[in-house]
Amino acid sequence: MSAVAVIGSGVGGLATAVRAAAAGRDVTVFEAAPEVGGKLRQLHLGDYRFDLGPSLFTWPELLTETLARAGEKAAPFSYGKLDRSCHYFWPDGTRFTAWSDRERLSEEIERAFGMDPAPALEHLDRSAEGFEATRGLFLEQSLHEGSSWKPSKALAHLGRAWRGRRALPLTRQLNRWNARTGHPKLQQLFNRYATYNGSDPYRAPAMLHVIPHLEFGMGTFAPDGGMHAIVEALHHTALNLGVSFELNSPVERILTSGGQVTGVESGGRQHTADIVVSGADVTPTYRRLLPDQPAPERILSAESSTSGVIFYWGVRHPAPDLHLHNILWAEDYPAEFHALFEAGTIADDPTVYINIGSRTSPSDAPEGAGNWFVMVNAPAGWETAGLEDLRRRVQAKIHRMTGIDVAACTECEHVLTPDDIASRTGSHLGALYGPASNKPTSAFLRHRNRDRRLRGLYFVGGSVHPGGGIPLCLLGARITSELMDQHDPQ
User: Fold this and answer.
1) Fewer Cβ in 10 A, N or C end of the chain?
2) What is the reported pTM?
3) C-beta of residue 434 within 8 angstroms of C-beta of residue 305
4) What is the pLDDT of residues 443-460, one digit of tens each?
5) Which CATH architecture has domain 3-40+225-299+440-487?
């Protein structure tokens, strides 16, 4: 039985541990924090419970498929589909609900924007087609293995990219592509999906237009018990499979000998392993854990994705106009991204995302109140000297656009800054998604899932292929596990 050491217990690390243990491997997970979950941990403040990390749950089949690998040892997990994905608020008073039902969505587009909904619905159809045409090639397998590019395999997918009028926008830019929606506010709405991997829609490739299909086509969901239920299900399934967890145990070094990993060092002790899977950010993996190995400098020097400043507020207000996911738009969206990526700061009037988990998990807040997760995009490495001013600006924006004096209604607060995210999760500069996807070749600049120089070394998590966010980290775990079975069988 081969021994596997997994570094980090984020979603990618936990899912890899489940898959490896289900395949009969002896798995130990090393976690620097006192609890599992990585970015997706939780916080209790008085009567309020908060999910600290990702707040959007899509493509649930990836999680249920992972749990199913454990058979009868899988921990229970349940979820429900939402009737809408998000509530949108513009500074001029326009409001829009992104309904899951297509007919209702069509009526809402006509009501909110006074336009024929056909161009927007056509745009969503193109998103679905692009997703289906590319998922097998770019998301569900490694991009860095020769076997992925065998003509018989690759051409089956790529052939759809040049097929007449419905050709995929392989060389176009996202903002210009989204002009096809037929309205500047819808163009802005679809531009926002670049932020799902921390990128700039005014530079990002148009192929990111496939992301909206996850919400509009496949649906938005809510786990019973909140987002941390995802971590709990993976963790308990891993325990049921016999996975060992070493908490409060940061790995100081990945051990190697003769071109092969031999284990990890943690707490001054050496732990032997045939396979090491780093779920840590790829930059500290090389800089700290593999200091004697050649580092992929081109990848490590790539432009970072955005980070965020997140306010966790217990708000004693019913907020009837807000749902689970809410967006308060910036007045000048291009200026916001110029500030993030060019000036290295947060715009004077940033877009504000509000997630109220108690909308679908009522026990997370007292009756008539909400556990508000309020996030503003920030540059990776943003200095926190302006935090007090940012708080005031965000509170004023919420009051101005929703009528809720959140400053007067807040009963408790916790804040995460890019520095906090970096120190708590090991993310380089607090970047939430590793490198940004601001170039057509960005997908190929993500680090590979299997190391070519060191046998037995693998990578999962948001900083490597296929990317950040719960679905892609779960896909990364699947890819890594398949590569393990091919190159390091039992």
Assistant:
1) N
2) 0.95
3) yes
4) 667 899 999 999 999 999
5) 3-Layer(bba) Sandwich (3.50)
